[in-house]
C-alpha cells in the first residue's frame, strides 16, 4: 500500500486545480482512497473521472478539464457566448466543436462535430486563470445567429457586442460568407437604429 504525503497531495491538487482519476490513484494509491477524499471534502467530483479542488466553481473546473485534457477542441456555442459576455445563460455542459472525423464522449461536454472549414476564428483566451481555445468574439456572434437566427437571444448578443464598442465589421462579413450567416446585415440595421 502506498503511503501518501497528505500535504504534498493537497498542494498538487491546489496547484493543478483538476486531476483525472488515474492521476489521483497514483497520488493516493487506489480508487477507494480517492472516493474517501471526495467524501471528506478534499476533492470535488466533477463526474466522468475528474476531480477538482473544492474551492473551484464547477463551471471553471469543467473549463480546466477542457484546457488540460482536451486541447484539440474549441469552446463554442452557448458556452462561448457566456464566456465572451454575450449571453448570461446557465451552462450545464461545456459546448465544444471538434473535427467531424474525430470522436469524443464526455458527460461534462456537449460535443459538436463540424466540418473542418467551420473551425475558423479560433483564439486562445485566459478565463479565470485558465488558458482555453475558443472562437473569437465575432465568430461567436455568428454562433449566436446560427443558434437563434434573428431571434431574441441573437439580438441580445448583438446588442451586447455593440455595447463593447470594438466592432470588427470586416471580420464579421468574412465569417458571414464562410459560415453562411447574416450577422453583418443585422449589425448594420442595429447601428442605423441607434
Helix % is 40-55%
Strand content: 15-25%
Rg result = 20 Å
The overall pLDDT, averaged over residues, is 91
Number of helices: 9
Instruction: Look at the helices and sheets and give the structural class.
Output: alpha+beta
Q: Please provide the count of β strands.
A: 8
Major sheet strand order? 1-3-2
Order of SSEs: HEHHEEHEHEEEEHHHH
| Weakly predicted, low-confidence segments | none
Tally of domains: 2
Keywords for this structure?
about 190 residues; three-stranded antiparallel sheet; single chain; 2 domains; alpha+beta; three-stranded mixed sheet; about 50% helix
What does this 3D model show about the protein?
The chain is α+β, with helices and mostly antiparallel strands and 194 residues long. It folds into 2 domains: 6-56, no CATH class; 61-193, no CATH class. Helices cover 48% and strands 19% of the residues. It contains 9 helices and 8 strands. The protein has helices spanning 6-16, 21-28, 31-40, 58-69, 77-83, 137-147, 152-164, 169-179, 183-193; strands spanning 18-20, 44-47, 50-52, 74-75, 94-99, 109-114, 122-127, 130-135. The chain has a 3-stranded antiparallel beta sheet. Strands 4-5-6 form a 3-stranded mixed beta sheet. A two-stranded antiparallel ribbon has the order 7-8.
